[in-house]
Amino acid sequence: MSIDLTEETITGAVQQTFDNTSDVRAKELFATLVRYLHDFAREVRLTDEEWFTAMDFLVRVGQKSSPTRQEFILLSDVLGLSVLVDLINHHRGPFATESTLLGPFFIENRPKVPNGADISGGVAGIPLFVTGRVVDPEGNPVAGVHVDTWHSDGDGYYDVQMPEKLHDQPAMRALLTTAADGRFRYRSIAPKYYPVPTDGPVGEIMRVSGRSPIRPEHIHFRLQAPGYDPLITMLFRGDDSHLTTDPVFGAKRSLVVDFVRHEPGVAPDGTVVDVPFQTVDWTFTLVPRSDSRNG
């Protein structure tokens, strides 16, 4: 390798350092990454000050991240990379439920609950009754599907954002399993639209670009079953005015649902509710794993 590198020869020299990489895919990824990074710097004529600012920004993104606050995922989300990777890798066909982002607030520490359980964790809000059904592309029910679900409260906060109020206990999230008929159901409280966290470095991007940080109202789901392609998706309230300005580009027309309002009375689980409540009823279609790799 030459010691007299120029603006034109530095890229090839760095790429050559990966020539002995035993993992062919890793070699391709690093060599291509170097090419695009160097091309970017040359195209915009990156200054010393801008480079230092970028390095400081990435350091602060790492410092802001924690087990319950994934600032790097949020950065990927607001730059559209998360959705792009999902679009590249998940072509489920016209009859399957579309996937979208996992988001920064998923955690493994969630309670396993039976169907029909109240997962609100005692948080006050408008009662919400969610009924779901999981089927295959032919409409046959899929039993034994592990269904993760999580959402915000009526003020737009997730449980991990309220550790003191909830005494570090999970709320508005749970892991359920579909019954023989492919169904699952639970009671919770209605979520609300909310801003993505803007108190960290990613918030600086939102402010400098003049973008709205408000995510439309939604409920998260992650479905997993042996023999099927895992599905990460959301259901969005249809009358939410923020659907077309989702800052993480996750909203999709096929995932828009009705949050149906009901007057006080008998709820879907047979209980009597003495205040107005809402219901959501949706069918999720999973694709067999071998099929999910096609088209």
From TrEMBL:
InterPro entries found in the cross-reference section: Catechol_dOase_N (IPR007535), Intradiol_dOase_C (IPR000627), Intradiol_dOase_core (IPR015889), Intradiol_RC_Dioxygenase (IPR050770)
Cofactor names: Fe(3+)
Assigned keywords, A-Z: Dioxygenase, Iron, Metal-binding, Oxidoreductase
Transmembrane segments: none
Domain Intradiol ring-cleavage dioxygenases: 103-261
Gene3D superfamilies named in the record: Aromatic compound dioxygenase (2.60.130.10)
Xref: Pfam families: Dioxygenase_C, Dioxygenase_N
A GO term for molecular function: catechol 1,2-dioxygenase activity
Gene Ontology process terms (BP): catechol-containing compound metabolic process
Domain Catechol dioxygenase N-terminal stretches: 23-92
Domain of life: Bacteria
Family of this protein: Belongs to the intradiol ring-cleavage dioxygenase family.
Protein name, per record: Hydroxyquinol 1,2-dioxygenase
Organism: Nocardia terpenica
